[in-house]
Design brief:
eight-stranded antiparallel beta sheet, six-stranded mixed beta sheet, 7 helices
């Protein structure tokens, strides 16, 4: 796919300590730890490369590990060559930016921007893909954080972390960046981000994320649960909720991806974790030798300490089908719902199911068929053909989907809402793209280009489709009404349109429903990105829109070699008070300030 780099991982043996600056020598990874990390990265990358092309396109979280494997030597060399920037210089730069372009009332900084250049003057500065949880006045935000890789690799003694977090004890008025999330003491561990934050009370929070563990001879892929008992300030070692073999003797196995977590409000010790299993083990009873993708679910009855066996929600066989992006939510009475996207050779279906009394999923309901936005591309190469979709600015928007259930106890209690971004309303002709890449030229000489280890032919579909935010509601979780457009601006009848993408949804204690998303309505060229929210007080029938007071930003890429350059994250969460004692919403999101880099902001509204 376009978002992969051609980065040869040359063997450094055990010479990494020689690459580390003198000031860091005492913290440099020892030979055993470095060798284990390198071997595990290579094993994961090799297994990833054997997945069917379309499944690589759908896969998200594991690509962070693959990216690090491909740039590992560059990662070490950059760390050695990077000239540290003084704290005074950083603080002065941040103060200037904040004075000129800091977002407005209600928007606050989440991560500590002054630490962005602590480990390298050029790279390792990106925070994205956020999740927010609120219990009472305590708020925790989790996010992907490339700086955590530097922090844990060079200054840790255990595993490596791609996950960061921040905590607020004043209902989101201010945040404290807590740094990298604890990856555990085993240097084979790698917590890979895709965070989902949940809480059961103001002291007890859970951080759900992707997890790689095991050894070179037996690499494992997992979904990890980390627990905090002090309001998110410190985190215990990750516990695997589900574990599968990442690569067998043939180098093929499983990748677990896109986790989600929900806690039962009627029994806070009960936790449900869903995820996607990209299964290339060729041992599936349902699919045999065919590649398989499945939405699965595991359940804990003891607050995330132990989990039962996986329950299959949906599974698809073959290279041209797939499932992805499951979200799970629980109503006031403990009834569990799972929504996801099913990819067929001709359509994308938004589906939902709930668990019966025996814990098995009921037959799924088709809510609607989704239309991809942006340019849909076909990449022809060996060993096959893969698709991808890019929004203007060349970044992916693959799985914009979210699920919420009304738990207010009022007239709308139990209503189920599913939202997604959809491009059915407007498509315009676009110039046919013809690009030959992979000529062996170093990628750094051509910013924005992607080089594969062979020469592909990339063709656009000839149209650009503009996305809107849609929502569908069900009173019983089975029968869904017609999809309603949430963004208030209709697509222009003539000329180009505007993208609205990656919606996040929540309901609060009063029964209100809110959705927030990225929005380009105010840029005639459909490039600058803003943040908008919509709110409904009548069960999702009507939606008022309002703009989040941030400075518009461009989708700037290639500032961080640890991050896929066509990646802005796949989701951002929106939360209300899980305890139900207060009203209102808070959600974090990515924001790129002028002259700086991707950071995380949070916006609260009552």
């Amino acid at each position: 796919m376009r978002t992969r780099f051609l980065m040869s991982v040359f063997s450094l043996g055990l010479l990494a300590t020689a690459l580390i600056p003198a000031a860091w020598c005492q913290n440099a990874p020892n030979a055993e730890r470095l060798g284990a990390i390198r071997a595990n990265l290579e094993q994961i990358k090799n297994a990833y490369d054997q997945l069917p092309p379309n499944h690589r396109t759908l896969l998200d979280g594991a690509t962070h590990v693959v990216q690090l494997a491909r740039v590992f030597d560059k990662f070490l060399a950059k760390a050695a060559a990077g000239k540290p920037v003084s704290r005074k210089e950083i603080n002065q730069a941040v103060a200037k930016i904040e004075a000129e372009s800091e977002p407005g009332a209600g928007v606050v900084s989440v991560n500590d921007r002054s630490t962005d250049l602590d480990f390298s003057g050029f790279d390792g500065v990106t925070q994205s893909e956020t999740s927010t949880a609120m219990c009472g006045n305590q708020v925790v935000v989790g996010f992907n954080d490339s700086g955590s890789e530097f922090q844990t690799f060079f200054f840790g003694t255990g595993g490596v972390s791609f996950s960061g977090g921040a905590v607020s004890s004043d209902r989101g008025n201010t945040f404290h960046d807590i740094g990298a999330i604890n990856p555990g003491p085993d240097f084979n561990n790698f917590v890979i981000g895709d965070p989902i934050i949940t809480c059961s009370d103001p002291s007890t929070f859970y951080y759900t994320q992707l997890f790689s563990l095991g050894s070179f001879s037996s690499p494992l892929t997992a979904i990890a649960i980390s627990k905090s008992v002090d309001g998110g300030n410190t985190w215990g070692d990750p516990i695997a909720a589900v574990t599968k073999t990442a690569a067998n003797l043939l180098g093929i196995g499983h990748f677990l991806d896109k986790p989600w977590n929900a806690i039962d409000p009627s029994n806070p010790s009960k936790m449900y974790v869903s995820y996607t299993d990209f299964d290339n083990s060729q041992t599936s009873p349902a699919c045999g030798k065919q590649a398989r993708t499945a939405i699965e679910l595991v359940v804990s009855n003891d607050g995330g300490q132990t989990f039962g066996n996986p329950v299959i929600v949906d599974e698809q066989c073959g290279n041209d089908t797939g499932v992805q992006a499951s979200h799970v939510a629980v109503n006031s009475h403990g009834l569990v719902y799972i929504a996801w996207e099913r990819f067929t050779p001709t359509t994308i279906e938004v589906r939902i199911t709930h668990l019966a009394a025996n814990g098995a999923p009921t037959p799924s309901t088709l809510i609607d068929q989704k239309v991809f936005g942006g340019d849909t591309l076909l990449v022809f190469h060996l060993p096959g053909t893969e698709f991808e979709t890019d929004l203007q600015g060349q970044f992916r928007d693959l799985v914009g989907l979210d699920l919420a259930i009304d738990r207010s106890g009022g007239p709308s209690d139990g209503s189920v809402y599913v939202t997604w971004d959809d491009a059915r309303n407007k498509s315009v002709p676009d110039l046919l793209g013809f690009t030959i890449q992979g000529l062996g030229i170093p990628p750094d000489q051509f910013p924005g280009q992607v080089f594969l280890p062979f020469t592909p032919l990339i063709l656009t579909a000839g149209n650009y489709a503009y996305t809107d935010v849609l929502v569908s509601r069900s009173r019983d979780g089975v029968h869904f009404g017609p999809s309603v457009q949430v963004n208030s601006d209709p697509q222009p009848k003539f000329g180009g349109g505007h993208d609205h993408f990656q919606p996040a949804i929540a309901t609060d204690s009063t029964g209100r429903v809110a959705i927030c998303w990225y929005d380009r309505r105010n840029d005639p060229q459909n490039f600058q990105i803003e943040r908008f929210c919509g709110e409904s007080r009548n069960g999702g029938n009507d939606w008022g829109n309002f703009r989040v007071p941030i400075t518009p930003f461009s989708p700037i890429h290639r500032q961080d070699f640890l991050i896929n350059p066509a990646y802005m994250g796949d989701y951002d969460g929106l939360a209300s008070d899980f305890t139900g004692k207060s009203k209102g919403f808070i959600g974090a999101f990515e924001w790129m300030s002028s002259g700086m880099n991707p950071d995380v902001k949070a916006y609260r509204f009552e």
